[in-house]
């Protein structure tokens, strides 16, 4: 804790996405719309899963509802401030606010990675062991999988923030992004953080790669198993899992690029951060609802009930 005595920085300056005033006004309108749609889309999924008895009792939709709940938080940890900053000349964030952004990004991101692995396991059991599905994916099991995802996300995040908050910050305080991202913040410390940075970012990279490999193995096993046991099963399995695979690629692609190759100076990192924190939570509900008849039917039923009640 002694290092904190040397921290003279009480706030950080965020560069944001661009410096053009006209572009910032356009981005304010554009991202405000994206944020509202993201929140509504994920809220509708959560409410639909909770209110429909069939979906609520289904392991797949229970996990999907939890994914949408996490996406609401993933979309909210930095986006509202980014939107507000488009109208500000100086984009400032307090030291505590900066550490909070790092904490919530890694907490929610870590939990969502593990939850996606749980969803892959759910599809594996449903397709490869259908007779044992309700036994293996009981409500107790689903609750346990969700709890494990939250615990892993929390432990991962605390391990990141505990080191970051105690670094000495006494010089530059400018972060070249629209939020406080770990690789950018630790480079501002008044000490050699190269080894520490490698260790901390390797933690994120290891979690990302581990979950990604587990997901690849899960979906490969699903396809191989179905191909061996059913004629034409590959197309059926692909149809069932395609939405999950799309979400996995959209979520892990930018994340792995940023945290496995963290010290690149390409401006593409900023674009990937936008995609990872803003567009992924928007695309998840679109992918799952547009490709899912049960979800669309339940949403129509909920909408009709709301209309008739008025």
Spell out the blueprint of helices and strands.
Elements (H helix, E strand, L loop, with lengths): L10 E4 L6 H31 L1 H5 L1 H18 L2 H7 L6 E3 H34 L4 H4 L2 H27 L8 E2 L6 H5 L7 H36 L3 H28 L7 H23 L2 H17 L1
Describe the structure concisely.
Putative odorant or sperm cell receptor. The protein is an all-alpha fold and 310 residues long.
Question: Explain this structure to me?
Answer:
It is a multi-pass membrane protein. It holds the Pfam family 7tm_4. With 310 residues, the protein is an all-alpha fold. 76% of the residues lie in helices and 3% in strands. The protein contains twelve helices and three strands; from the N terminus they run E-H-H-H-H-E-H-H-H-E-H-H-H-H-H. A three-stranded mixed sheet has the order 2-1-3. The longest helix has 36 residues.
Features:
globular; 310 residues; 3 strands; single chain; mainly alpha; 12 helices; three-stranded mixed β-sheet
């Amino acid at each position: 804790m002694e290092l904190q005595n040397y921290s003279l920085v009480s706030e950080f300056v965020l560069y944001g996405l661009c410096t053009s005033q006209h572009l910032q006004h356009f981005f304010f309108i554009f991202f405000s719309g994206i944020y509202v749609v993201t929140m509504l889309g994920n809220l509708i999924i959560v409410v639909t899963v909770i209110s429909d008895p069939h979906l609520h009792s289904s392991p797949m939709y229970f996990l999907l509802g939890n994914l949408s709940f996490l996406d609401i938080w993933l979309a909210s940890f930095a986006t509202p401030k980014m939107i507000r900053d488009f109208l500000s000349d100086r984009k400032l964030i307090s030291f505590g606010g900066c550490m909070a952004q790092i904490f919530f990004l890694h907490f929610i991101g870590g939990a969502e990675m593990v939850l996606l692995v749980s969803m892959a396991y759910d599809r594996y059991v449903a397709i490869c062991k259908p007779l044992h599905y309700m036994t293996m994916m009981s409500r107790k099991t689903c609750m346990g999988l969700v709890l494990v995802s939250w615990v892993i996300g929390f432990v991962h995040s605390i391990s990141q923030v505990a080191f970051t908050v105690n670094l000495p910050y006494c010089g530059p305080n400018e972060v070249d992004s629209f939020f406080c991202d770990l690789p950018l913040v630790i480079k501002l410390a008044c000490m050699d953080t190269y080894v520490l940075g490698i260790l901390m970012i390797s933690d994120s990279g290891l979690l990302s790669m581990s979950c990604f490999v587990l997901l690849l193995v899960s979906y490969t096993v699903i396809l191989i198993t179905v191909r061996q046991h059913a004629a034409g099963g590959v197309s059926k399995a692909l149809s069932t899992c395609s939405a999950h695979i799309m979400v996995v690629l959209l979520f892990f692609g930018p994340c792995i690029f940023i945290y496995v190759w963290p010290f690149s100076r390409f401006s593409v990192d900023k674009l990937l951060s936008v995609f990872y924190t803003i567009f992924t939570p928007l695309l998840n509900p679109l992918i799952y609802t547009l490709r899912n008849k049960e979800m669309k039917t339940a949403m129509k039923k909920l909408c009709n009930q709301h209309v008739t009640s008025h």
